[in-house]
Specification:
about 180 residues, alpha/beta, Uracil-DNA_glycosylase-like, Uracil-DNA Glycosylase, subunit E, 5-stranded mixed β-sheet, 6 helices, 5 strands, globular
């Protein structure tokens, strides 16, 4: 397993996609905004060094240990999955047009209808607002559904989101975990 892609491999990953991580009976389907070039080069969601998704997932209690992005396929056995609002990789999420986010939101709605998780967790309030025409949406549970499933908006775990630390992200993730129905 190659862990770190070269700069040329990262540059060549523009517009690539990464397959969803999903399975039956998901408790939470996490939706990133779109893959980074680094993630597309590795084929692993939230793979860029500095992304706080995996540490926040662990610190919140969703996973029993800190997983490496290459271990993403262990998530469905834990009732967790990963997808994106927009499938194509870019260097930065702000490279996506509003129209692309809206089309991605429609595709995500269809995807959620098929997967049927207990919750859809969208990682990024700005992308959620644009993709689903909810300009006043805030973090946390939403009044609306996507794909007929309840939605929870979480902060974007990108290292570029300086408003959140790993611990504050983990706290937001924990609120979602605590709201889930018991699995026993």
């Amino acid at each position: 397993m190659k862990v770190k892609p070269t700069p040329a491999e990262i540059a060549a990953a523009a517009d690539r996609t990464i397959p969803d991580v999903a399975g039956p009976n998901l408790r939470v389907l996490f939706s990133g905004i779109n893959p980074s070039l680094y993630s597309a080069a590795t084929g692993h969601h939230f793979a860029r060094p500095g992304n706080r998704f995996w540490p926040a997932l662990h610190r919140s209690g969703f996973t029993p240990r800190l997983l490496h992005p290459s271990e993403q396929f262990e998530l469905p056995a834990m009732g967790l999955g990963i997808t994106n609002v927009v499938a194509r990789a870019t260097a930065r999420a702000d490279e996506l047009s509003p129209d692309e986010l809206i089309k991605g939101g429609a595709a995500l709605d269809n995807n959620v209808r098929k997967i049927r998780p207990t919750y859809l967790a969208v990682l990024g309030v700005t992308a959620y607002r644009t993709a689903f025409a909810k300009p006043k949406a805030t973090m946390g549970p939403q009044d609306d559904t996507v794909g007929e499933r309840p939605v929870w908006v979480l902060p974007n775990p990108s290292g570029l989101n300086a408003h959140y630390t790993v611990d504050t992200l983990a706290g937001a993730f924990r609120e979602l975990l605590d709201s889930l129905p018991s699995t026993s």
